[in-house]
Amino acid sequence: MSSKKLVNSVAGCADDALAGLVACNPNLQLLQGHRVALRSDLDSLKGRVALLSGGGSGHEPAHAGFIGKGMLTGVIAGAVFASPAVGSILAAIRAVAQAGTAGTLLIVKNYTGDRLNFGLARERARAEGIPVEMVVIGDDSAFTVLKKAGRRGLCGTVLIHKVAGALAEAGVGLEEIAKRVSEVTKSMGTLGVSLSSCSVPGSKPTFELAADELELGLGIHGEAGVRRVKMATADEIVTLMLDHMTNASNVSHVSVQPGSSVVLMVNNLGGLSFLELGIMADAVIRSLEGRGVKITRALVGTFMSALEMPGISITLLLVDEPLLKLIDAETTAAAWPNVAKMSVTERKRSRAAPMEPKETHDSATAGGVASKQMVLVLERVCTTLLGLEEHLNALDRAAGDGDCGTTHSRAARAIQGWLKEGPPPASPAQVLSKLSVLLLEKMGGSSGALYGLFLTAAAQPLKANTDLPAWSLAMDAGLEAMQKYGKAAPGDRTMLDSLWAAGQELQAWKKPGADLLQVLTKAVKSAEAAAEATKNMEAGAGRASYISSARLDQPDPGAVAAAAILRAILEVLQNQGV
């Protein structure tokens, strides 16, 4: 069975892809009758060398993404993973020649079909009197012994586009550009690794890998590599790759040694997530710098893909200052990244965290009666949440993730750890503020953020007073913050339902002569009833709002947890005879 692709037709996919790129980029034009893209300002290149490249489609953004001032003049695209037609290559050469350019350099990756077709077009153009030179790029560092076909052309070709483009823009002549980029190629190496293959539109994957295998040293056309290795960590894979491509016994190695200066490319082969790409880039930089290599520039992204192949290639180019200036030269090519013109190595990568504001301590001392009572309350809350872990997880599985209990247990353990460090502050406002920071850092998920918001807001009214009206105002402030940022409302089947019900009962604390325990007892019963009632509600907020209400026949776990916390507080205060 062939793989699924978003195409109009298999036969027309290469044409459609190139047309789409040109349609979105006013700086490009298609050459009528050919799968060729050219700079739209072609006539402005009179007297300068034109640069043409290309190859099979499926390597996007290569090569058309690198058309622009300071890089390529045009690109000839073949079908997916197929060399472009000789007639189209010749038409592109004629087009740039007739625009008054001072000769054409063909930049060709080292594959038999590309060499043959570009070479034949070159000979025909030269027979017509058009000055044309051709450089064949082979930067593959996979093979340990010399192959008759030579090193394959891989992502390093993009760096050659950049160097040649900068030279052409500076007015350097055709033969000199050809000579200089040929020398640069000798100081470059690329190696790829992939988690699986890719599939040409209309076809099956080109090779199969076991679930615990990686393919090392593969090309960009879905062909298998030189070695299969077992899955490993990102750091281990990068070490393996760098060891292979810099090993002097490897005939295709790149001579990177301690003290070398390099331009680094970490290239997404098409299907790797940006998360993994960042992890691999970090691993490459750490490994190279650990070997004493200076990374002058780091390019990370998708430059030359192999359709949807989930892997990366690493390219290392040895550079000196003159070559680095060519890499840094301006270009309008859409796919060339905006790279900072400064060294990656020896740069400070972090700054000190901001200082915490100084705490204002009240006259009450930590460890007093109020502080000891707070410890008892917090310990009971933690014990309660830990005991509910499995029950809350079971309730939460209806919404898909099933981690509500785990999240609350993580909060409970964080609070227990904090209490072991010493008595909490005597000030309730400081306690709530401390708990807010702790839960935001340790609890995680939306629950951590919501509790953090609640506690941060609730702490504010308690700074001035800690009587019953102030505690009622604290509840009001916490609920308001949760609604403002969480966007939930009473009746949405969230933890807010329990807290809101309790908050309505706690309004009685604002009345003169209110009884703490009587009001709190009513508040807890209302919270528990509200939590139970959530099983009949349709979720209006949170992850559960995406689940069919028919599947939500249990109470909301967040509401159950909030009610349980209030019950634990009440029980401690009752036992203390407050």
TrEMBL record:
Its cofactor is Mg(2+); Mn(2+); Co(2+). Keywords: ATP-binding, Cobalt, FAD, Flavoprotein, Kinase, Lyase, Magnesium, Manganese, Metal-binding, Multifunctional enzyme, Nucleotide-binding, Phosphoprotein, Transferase. GO terms for molecular function: ATP binding; FAD-AMP lyase (cyclizing) activity; glycerone kinase activity; metal ion binding; triokinase activity. Its EC number is 2.7.1.28, 2.7.1.29, 4.6.1.15. Substrate binds at G56, S57, G58, H59, K109, D114. It holds the Pfam family Dak2. The keyword RNA-binding does not apply. Gene3D superfamilies: 1.25.40.340, Dihydroxyacetone kinase, domain 1, Dihydroxyacetone kinase, domain 2. Residues 372-571 form the DhaL domain. It catalyses: D-glyceraldehyde + ATP = D-glyceraldehyde 3-phosphate + ADP + H(+); FAD = riboflavin cyclic-4',5'-phosphate + AMP + H(+); dihydroxyacetone + ATP = dihydroxyacetone phosphate + ADP + H(+). GO terms for biological process: carbohydrate phosphorylation; fructose catabolic process to hydroxyacetone phosphate and glyceraldehyde-3-phosphate; glycerol catabolic process; negative regulation of MDA-5 signaling pathway. Residues 345-366 are annotated as: Disordered. One of its GO terms (cellular component) is cytosol. The keyword Transmembrane does not apply. The active site is at H221. Residues 9-336 form the DhaK domain. Belongs to the dihydroxyacetone kinase (DAK) family. NCBIfam families: dak_ATP, PRK14479.1. PANTHER family: TRIOKINASE/FMN CYCLASE, TRIOKINASE_FMN CYCLASE. Homodimer. Interacts with IFIH1 (via the CARD domains), the interaction is inhibited by viral infection. Catalyzes both the phosphorylation of dihydroxyacetone and of glyceraldehyde, and the splitting of ribonucleoside diphosphate-X compounds among which FAD is the best substrate. Represses IFIH1-mediated cellular antiviral response. This is Triokinase/FMN cyclase. It comes from Marmota marmota marmota. The lineage of its organism: Eukaryota, Metazoa, Chordata, Craniata, Vertebrata. The gene is TKFC.
